[in-house]
Design goal:
By secondary structure, the chain is mainly α. About 80% of the residues lie in helices and about 0% in strands. It is built from 4 helices and no strands. Helix 2 runs parallel beside helix 4 and helix 3 runs antiparallel to helix 4. The longest helix has about 70 residues. The two termini are about 65 Å apart.
Amino acid sequence: MSGHGFHVHGPHDHELEHAASGGHDHGHGDAVSSGKGMSTTGKIAVSTAAIATAGAIFAYMGGATQANAGLYKNNAAIKKTEASNQWNYFQSKSTKQALAEFARDTATDDGRRQGWQVKVTRYEQEKTEIQAAAKKLEDEASRWDAQSETQMHQHHRWAQATTVLQVSIALAAIALLTRKKWLERAMYGVAVAGVAIGALAALHI
């Protein structure tokens, strides 16, 4: 302040006023008065923040579904191994049954023949139970595989949505630098597309 009561602006004062007006002088189209709402720069900045938030959520969901897909695939592998063990057990019982049938057929008296027949019947019953258990495990493995595939499909959807929103953010940055309205419109259009893909992921489509 000088002795005559007027204020002398320094270079930094002008820059502060320039930033406060949205990066433009008051005479330009992007600047707004206090009663006309937010500037284009402000709108793009707020939109970019919202898009980035949605992108972070989509990225989290993409990571979660990928982790689930891996877990379900691992469960499927465990069930397949258990089913394979059951089928090996089934084969062992089949071998024992075949030997018992051979002994029964070559037995020289009825007592031994009946004894071997009891074993043949027991092995047949055990085979039926083992076969049922093996098929049940195979069905469980198939269900885990199907769930894993569903989760991977969702993961790809979330990843696509995240990528599209990242493109939208890049367009927003270019729009801020170039002041091109068509880039601003493209940014909003791409953002809407990203949100739509995210909705498809949420709906398992």
